[in-house]
Amino acid sequence: MARCRFGFATGALGLMISIQAAAGTVTTDGADIVIKTKGGLEVATTDKQFAFQIGGLLQADYSQFDGIYSKNGKRANEAFLRRARLELNGKAYGDWSYEFSIDFADDGATSWKEASVSYLALEPVTIKVGRFDPDFGLEQATSSKWTTAMERSLLGDLAPWVADHADGMGVQLSASTDLFYGVASVNRPKGQEDKNGKNTNTYNLRAVVAPWAEPGNVLHFGVDYAMSDIDKLASNGRIRSRLGARATSEDAVNGNRVDLAPGVAGAYEGDAVWGLEAAWAQGPLSVQAEYLRRDLDAASGTGRNDRKAEGYYGQLAYTLTGESRGYKLDGGKFDRVKPSDKQLGAWEVFYRFDAARVEERGYLDNRAKLHTLGVNWYVNDQVKVSANYVKTNVDGISNQAGDDSGDAVAMRLQYVF
Asked: How many domains does the chain fold into?
């Protein structure tokens, strides 16, 4: 099956690249079908009842890191495919839509990023069923293609399950109006059953209010909540982080993915997370910030105390060439920067500060702070080149050499079709 998927993906990728030069619109006799080949392959009927689109993503990364980022503190480096993805989505009979996305790993393995079907006839409400990432937070909602930094903030490490389907299945209801976006979902992660084979569930709620919701004119506020039924299957409460440098987990020899809190088997039985989000954009300037808190309740009889993880980040970005970041209220998320000059492209600079703390009375009190500086060059609508520098300091944690700080430099070439 993996070989078949890979063959299909290779053929589709070749087709997409070959048709880039033939961008345009073709209409059949009777004007009932439109074919677009700019940036991918899209086929749609003019009555908007049926549509079909193939696209994908390739992100090639190179990174150097030292200090806390490596086990012995010495400089290490890694080159790897961060993401290689084939995407298929479309619409059928006007009231139904579908989305399929497959990730291809360096080792040849494949996994579903999404495989879902949505019912659209209850506008403004949409019902989605299948395998998908739960909705939690502004940065997590924004596609990995168009996040400002190469890697998302520390918040994603504090409670990764709130925005990760874990190969499970779920049901989601969402709605969008001129001012409001809301979503509620129930997901059942794969492989999390109790001794009787009964699955745990995760529950997500997100509400966004955006008085201004146009590119270059955004005012966004959001609140998030998620809960897991881990009382049916006790959690070990482990919290790990790459500290903004993905390469630390790609380097099996010297990469150091730190434990902000070590796991303790069966020690916790309640898991709840809530968050706040805010953003403002005016022209080429955008500012965004989020806060997250996770509470893990200690299981009775284990001798442990409740564990709490909390963190926040603030980010400032500016497009030197004057373009605005895209924004979509339906989804409550930022979108791509579209260069107005196809020769020069669009140039964006940014700074982000992250802080996180994990504590459990009598056992641990660990902290991390990250500074990220970066530049993005949106060469055209398909190609993006990024460079990030990350400086981190931690308290209560160190590597094998005793380092509690480190530096990482990362570069990425991205192609979207």
From this structure: 1
CA dihedral (126, 132, 137, 141) positive or negative: negative
Q: Which CATH number goes with the domain that contains 325?
A: 2.40.160.10
Give me the amino acid identity at 360. Answer: E
Give the pLDDT of residue 283: 97
DSSP H/E element including 312: strand 307-319
Q: What is the mean pLDDT of residues 292-309?
A: 94
361 CB-near residues (< 8 Å, 6+ apart): 305, 306
φ, ψ for residue 381 (rounded to 5)? Answer: -70, -15
Contact indicator for 289, 263 with CB cutoff of 8 Å: no
Q: Tell whether the model's pLDDT for residue 9 goes beyond 60.
A: no
149 pLDDT above the threshold of 90 = yes
Residues 6 or more apart whose Cβ sits within 8 Å of residue 234: 265, 266, 267, 268, 269, 299
Is pLDDT at 166 greater than 80 in this prediction? no
Average pLDDT of span 152-175: 91
Tokens of 277: 């989000």
Contacts of 185 (CB under 8 A, 6+ apart): 128, 134, 135, 170, 171, 172, 173, 203, 204
